[in-house]
Amino acid sequence: MFPAKVWIREVGPRDGLQMEKEFIPTERKLRFINSLLEAGLQRIEVTSFVSPKAVEQLKDAESVVKLLKTKGQVEFSGLVMNEKGMERAVEAGISEVVVVISATETHSLRNGGHSIARSLQRMNRIAGIGAREGIRVRGAVAVAFGCPFEGEVPVAALDGVVAVLYDAGISQITLADTAGLASPVQVKGIMSALQKKYSNVLWGLHFHDTRGLGLANVYAGLEEGVSLFESSTGGLGGCPFIPNAAGNVATEDLVNMLHMMGIDTGIDPAKLLNAAGELEDMLGRSLSSRMLRLHKSACQ
Amino acid sequence: MFPAKVWIREVGPRDGLQMEKEFIPTERKLRFINSLLEAGLQRIEVTSFVSPKAVEQLKDAESVVKLLKTKGQVEFSGLVMNEKGMERAVEAGISEVVVVISATETHSLRNGGHSIARSLQRMNRIAGIGAREGIRVRGAVAVAFGCPFEGEVPVAALDGVVAVLYDAGISQITLADTAGLASPVQVKGIMSALQKKYSNVLWGLHFHDTRGLGLANVYAGLEEGVSLFESSTGGLGGCPFIPNAAGNVATEDLVNMLHMMGIDTGIDPAKLLNAAGELEDMLGRSLSSRMLRLHKSACQ
Question: Measured between CB atoms, which of A211, A218, A219 is closest to B294?
Fold first, then answer.
């Protein structure tokens, strides 16, 4: 019933760090990414190629990418919102990008500055550049499970965005619960419908833990056979364009649940806690993932 | 598939407060219980009739019970471990008690000072007193999903305890994940087996959120049709005889998930947040439930 192996895409260096106000030196970011690699993470979203005015923390995107050490099958990716970002990504030499499209007009305007239709046109041009330059283009749908501005997202609206991504030849699509509004029942309903309709897409799920439902939603996704989840070490993260945004599901809590369920992740939990400790040192504050807190209390 | 209505038993006044070192005056405890009643909670575990040496915080058990205002269908209960506690409960005039039996010998010895067999003998005598005095006796099985001392709990061992409770005429049984070791898959397996075997028991589930799996485990229980869950306002709680114990699932997070799933609880979420605020005032510190944090950040 459940997938035997689950892929985890760590989004901490991108989704996690983008909310941090104080600039973190590039070499420290790299040290964090390297400790994630040592823990066995094979998919890492390392940065965003967006305007430094919008997300100053990630203004060193090119430098981060240039300093990455490729390691076996590791897939590093960077977020792009438009052609300019894609050109920067090409220039930096990253092999995978993710294009984010919002499922609602209001979030689309606030997050990317354009309507959904306009963003999808840009996505098509980005996919074209990707095909020409040999860069894999993934898709992500923001506020896929609910929008803080518009409320419920009709499945037809979500499907409308997915259909355009699919028609552009995109075969990896992440649905992001940007505002932490998803419920397990909703996850099951949506994944059941979309997986039937688009059976040759590798689906990913990305939950924020705003209401504490992150792992319950992952579990619902697993029941539908979803085998790729995005998470952030230490439960860091949030969207700058979502009021009261909370962090992602913590990678160490996700790995723990999967291992408890007998599902293989290829990740070493002890080394992952080291990476989380590295992140705490880097940020100069404690993080709130359950496994990190448990680890610390057990060490005392 | 899911139950249309779910009962929530608030265990904050007992499981939540028992870990608090500084004694909380009885009238403050009552104020907290009253705000829970105002929020619509109809099942509340209000205290423990255990030795004040073991849990000093609850040494005012009799006073708490005597000051309770009965209100409609509300079921107040107190925890008892032995005949002496049961006699105190009778004297205090509470209408329901819960007897806790551990699923493993090591936890049984540490938590209650006796073997499982001895505890079950005492439970039988307590059930006898209950029958004579017209006090409803519920059962709870501690470390039902895993023990920090013994590791995995064989289903046969769990079933062995359940069978004795059942034979004593107990028709409400809570399985408690005292150390937060349960996984959703395990919950499904155990609840499927036990509900088939003991179809006329009202099953309750009680999860600690030690590893962040509390709500995922609730969801798995709901999928098996379980309709009673125990939780603690603010996510307070922990077992004094469990190393690095973490709190219960937070009542406000549980209510939010159930309401998002369209399941009726009879509880008013806004008034519940008031009760959580009352609890914070009482303890003089912030609590970490997601809904409380979200509420506060939204208020700022």
Answer: A211
